[in-house]
Amino acid sequence: MADTDNPKAADFQRGLDIIKHHINFDASSHPSGQEWRSYPELPTGDDLNPDWDDPEQLAKIRHLLPNTWQEPWESKNTYLETHYRLQREEAITMLRYSVKKFKDDPAMMDDEETCVYTRVFVRGYLMTRLGPMCQVQFSTKRSGKKIRWRQTRRLTVGTLVAISTAADCFKTICMPAIISDHSIRDGLDQNPPVIHFQWANINDAVIDPNQELVMIETRFGYFEAVRHSMVGLQHVADTPTCLDKYLVHADKSDIPAEYVEQNPQMDVRSLVHHIPNSSSMTETEIGAELARVREPLQNYPMLHGFDSGLSAYTNLDNSQLSAVHRILTKELAIVQGPPGTGKTFTSVQALQILLNSQERGSNVIIVAAQTNHAVDQILTQLIKANVNVVRLGGRTQNEEIKRYSMYNLRQAAKMPSSTLRADTDYKNSENARRTNIKTLEEGIKDVFPKDLIDPVTLRLADIISDSQLQSLQADQTWATAPSSPDMPTGLLADWLGDQLVKAELQDDKDPDFEAVEDDDEVDLDEEDYNLELDDCIVDEDENSGRIDGKFIPIRHVWTGANPKSYSKGDIVIRRQLQKSNLWDIDAKYRGAVYRYWQQQLLSKHHQLFCNLLAVNVRTTKNLKINRWFKDTLCIKSSRIEVIGCTTTGLCKYRGLLAALRPRTMLIEEAAETREANILSALYSSLQQLILVGDHQQLAPHCDTPGLGEEPYYLRISMFERLVYLQMPFTVLNMQRRMIPSLREVLNPFYPQLLDHPVVTRSDTRPPVPGMAVPSFFFHHTWVDGLDENLSRFNVLEAEMVVRFMDYLLMNGVPASQITVLTFYRGQKKRILHECKTKLRQWAPFANVFTVDSYQGEENDIVILSLVRSNGPNGPHQAGFLQDQNRGVVSISRARRGFYIFGNMINLAYANNASWTMWGRVRQVFERQGRLGEDTRLPITCQNHGKTTWMSHPEDWVNCHGGCDIKCEEMLSCGHGCGRQCHWVSHDRLICREPCERILSCTHRCQRFCGEDCVCDCAIFTGAYAHDEFPVNDATLGTGIDYDSTRVAPFIAADQRHEGAARRNGVGREDVGRRGRGRDYRRGIGYDGANRGLASRRIEESDLVRSSDGQSYRWAMFNARQDDKQKQAKSAEALAPLLNGTTLAIHDTFRSITLDEHGKRNIGEEVESREITTPSPKEDGDLLSFEDAVEITTQATSPVSPAGLSPNPTGLGLSPFKQRRQQPRSFTRALRSARIFGSYEEEGAEWESGSQDDVASVKGCDDLISL
């Protein structure tokens, strides 16, 4: 590909060879005694499903070497092998355990460790540029719950699964595979759901669509996170580096890097940030002074350190300057940065000097971190410093960083001419891949045709004999017409006859479970699965995350009938197969014979298919080689200076990064990264390794129980090991985050930590509103619990935390300045739930995090929920809280307010580790007088300075952001506030004093001062007795009939004329104003008002049916006096009932229908003829009568409008409501007629009734006859 006589071309060729070596890495050969170097990248079936009765296999599994991190290693091989075996065990041991459980109990359901997927069938293969991916459908029936695939961690891309046949259930068969696609749309959202995976061993590939499989997944561990580091360790075994002496033998020589010794002059001008006492200088003078100070720093000799005079001109403190010097010069540079000391800022300053001291783009620097968030943080600062960066990996959530992805760089880069040959090679590889796919597709069509198998194909596969083929062909003169157009035709179709049937689809549906698997969306931290997606997708779909390719379906369309499930083993089938003339085979056995042929043809083609798939894999590797080579050319031509990725990406893209031959690698948050991830990324070109972190904060994560502890210590990082071995390192000692009182909580763990002057300034760290103290430990003994994921939560503690947050918000603290931390995901979910229910008046609050996901972050106010509590008497257990690394992170995130909620007794007495952590925190809070041992939290009113002690979530109910003193301030209307001390500004409150305004109708307003003025008189409302209404049987807009004889009887005609004159003659300026000079506010009846009936169209909801059942009155009619008159009449009518007199009840109805235009028509009256003698029953305050009513006539037939159900009684119904259609009991009639009680008492009952309820009675006078 390259001309080796050209130095530049030779460099390209060297890079290409490195990439080829990585992608085509052959681990089969190894020196004697180093068997681990020959292990394949992916585990074998024996690794996951060993013979548990074979001592040799068990010994191989248990061959783990102890991690002797507290002393130097005896050899590089032992060092590498130890970490390799620990990584491999972490990757597969929990899946091995799950397979064993299923093997012992094949009927098991899903449990805490294992997910079981049954009814797994192959549907085809997706041929992508990443290799062939098997598409399968499966059942989640064993889960017993509905799976929410958008939130769950199940079957994440990169997950290792174990597959066996349903008949074998891992007795002898175990086929590992890697999930390669987790598409929801048209995949996991289907029923049955569909997933793609890649076989670990391509010879395991299943081609039979009727072969039922079972798939096992473990809930622990993540294979993708360790897969590439294991291969990297095998590479490192062949790669000597200058760093071996430090990492293997703990050499403390602390010498400069090779390139620094060769050229120790560096440009450190970027360290000059300001000029002292420049406030009195002009910009020109400042610029001149900066130029003078920077001039001697352009070629500064770095080996002897910085001049002490530089401190006056830089924003770095002396410990940061010392750290920068170490980073710039040493082969192995270790920098410890306690919380808030500016580790990232220091790293960026050092990188800027390294880049300024070399030709732009000549030597790329690798910057990596454990989490995507940490990578994005440092890249963001480098971008602001005008550094040319590119981001590897596709998991960034930072929109700014996405612009610097490798995908976007490819699109924008101007590729050199040397890529022309690479393009040609790519096209050749792509053509070879497509040819392979076409060959595979043709082979699949031979075995799985759309109709029936070609008899010639059967003969070529030696499944039928020549005589059998000839017997078929001899009878091809006449062909039977198919019974339907879609039926196949041909020799075998005629031969099969009625035995020809459509193949059954394996499409069993999952049950529609009512229970839903616990929602993992809130439970899933962003960095739980640190998957690098960049290599899982093709260029054109990199941003979308889709995987595209040619899909080759695998299924039989037609087959033979075999109702008795005959097989080759049945003697009757064997006899039929021996007949030389196929037409001699009994017709009833031909379906079974044809099925046998299908199975035989598939069996004979299986190895051919596997070989074609293997060729496809090799072809896609060539594509990957070509792509990585083009990426190296793209990076170089774009003069990229820094490449950022996660530590997982360091291993996954090892070939690409090694081909760039970097000489410097910087690891941020190095103490949180497993040693194997850094160790596996030691490329042969590296001359300098920079580790920046803090071993007293979060340690590496370990998913497998036991591997994190003695003697394996998987949670011990390279950073911590080297610091423990007393390798030279620099500690940053000046923090810029916490106010001094909060830093005191951290001092037991960092005795030398000092405060930068910025943290003592009140303008940058103001007091917390509503709190007299910036920190407090609220002690309680409320008992915690376990959720279904076995995660802890504490209900009362969560409520107390959320109520406290509500108090802070009421006192003006922005929600963005508050963070809630907890050690348990169960508590995180509980707090978020409480926020949704108790903080509804605020914008949704989402700043709730687990401690593990918050390293490197900070906020003004941090609330820490400790959760663990077994009451005052125990037994006391600390769980995660005893981990000092997590504890240090949790107490060091706040800038100006830090409040802890938990059971201090439990922490003190749980164990020594818990006391070592939290006992020291307790001592600080006690010394500061901020430990609420009596379950009390002090809050201080901003208005009155009064301190209130809160002890329980219920104590917050009457707290409105202040204290219990009455507010003495005046409202804008002139009335006193009078409320309990509150946080809401007075302009948002409604005055509750009686309104004193005189309205346009000369009446006084009948409402409160803060409400809209209103009067129910006719002058104000504009509702008069002689308002024009349509005649009976006419409609008024809405299609509602009115009885003009019963319209507003309480408003006389002269009143209406008087009101009109007033309304026309009185303007706003004539309205009387009384009281204390307050502005008049328009009420409902004021002309031009924006609100109220006077300014809007009358709707049907403003109308209600009157008690006579025929007419409407105004809904706002204040009918007190009219109600009294009706009550007197009703009492008079009831007198005979109360004296026991027999009544004859005639029910009268009107049928109500809608015409085609939706208008309402009322038919003639219908009266029941049956006379009954009701028997009274006591029902509370009412008399109840049961009646039997028979309808004898009906004037009109109802028309059932669209959307309404026909009335089964034959009566038309009101279009407003259809609740009941039969006549109600007499109790209902009495309620509807408002015989008992006043208007106010029965109003709710009246207004809630359906229209047919009230239309089914005429009125009191018609209902009751004596």
What does this entry look like structurally?
- This protein is α/β, with parallel strands linked by helices.
- It has 37 helices and 40 strands.
- It has a seven-stranded parallel β-sheet. The protein has a six-stranded antiparallel beta barrel with strand order 1-2-5-4-3-6.
- Strand 1 and strand 2 form a beta hairpin.
Shape: globular
The mean pLDDT is 81
Number of strands: 40
Low-pLDDT parts are 520-545, 1031-1119, 1169-1266
What class do helices, strands and sheet pairing give?
alpha/beta
* Main pleated-sheet profile: 7 strands, parallel
For the record, give the distance between the C-alpha atoms at the N and C termini, rounded to a whole number. Answer: 115 Å
Percent in strands: 5-15%
Measured as a percent range, the helix fraction is 25-40%
What would you report as the Rg, rounded to the nearest angstrom?
42 Å
Number of H/I helices: 37
**How do the strands of the widest beta sheet line up side by side?**
11-15-10-16-17-9-18
Question: Features of this protein?
Answer:
single chain; 1266 residues; alpha/beta; seven-stranded parallel sheet; 37 helices; 32% helix; disordered C terminus
